[in-house]
Write a structure and sequence with these properties.
single chain, about 170 residues, alpha+beta, Cell Cycle, Spindle Assembly Checkpoint Protein, Chain A, 6 strands, about 30% strand, globular
Length: about 170
């Protein structure tokens, strides 16, 4: 019975976290002056399936959105959303959108000519997801990651946030 309860909870909280991260990334992209349709399209095409699969198996370690100039592999701004598998244990699900909004103001705003990409980080042994492969690593350049704290909390998953700044 415990296994079925955990599987049920993880399936539902993985869907909740994936949906909420998508919304946060769309707000972030929009706040930086970019078109959020790219986030929505990527979520529909591959991110949601991969994120849910890897959160359910416990292998997703972070979502990243990275801004870079065309042809470069140096990050000019962005956010990371590390995933932990030690939620609050309560039945509550919440997103601290006010805190996230404040952190956007502190983050390094990328140049207007930037492109963005979304990367999912996994731990070893993650199950394969059809159509999803490895992505090249990008350099942080002179940016450093600043901790924001917990943004999304569920009974068994927590997504925190980091933003990039000089």
């Amino acid at each position: 019975m415990t296994t079925k309860t955990l599987a049920y909870a993880r399936t539902h909280t993985a869907a909740y976290v994936s949906d909420k991260i998508a919304g946060l990334m769309k707000r972030l992209v929009n706040a930086f002056g970019f078109d959020p349709r790219g986030v929505a399209d990527a979520w529909t095409e591959w991110i949601d399936l991969a994120a849910r699969t890897w959160m359910e198996s416990g292998h997703l370690t972070a979502f990243k959105i990275q801004f870079h100039m065309p042809g470069e592999t140096v990050i000019r701004g962005g956010f990371e959303f590390p995933i932990r598998y030690d939620g609050n244990g309560d039945a509550d699900l919440y997103v601290d959108e006010d805190h996230f909004r404040e952190s956007i103001l502190k983050a390094e705003k990328p140049p207007s000519a930037s492109l963005y990409r979304i990367v999912l980080m996994t731990s070893p042994g993650a199950p394969p997801v059809r159509g999803v492969g490895d992505a090249p690593a990008f350099s942080m350049g002179t940016l450093i990651a600043r901790e924001v704290g917990s943004i999304i909390v569920t009974p068994d998953l927590i997504a925190s946030a980091r933003y990039y700044r000089k």
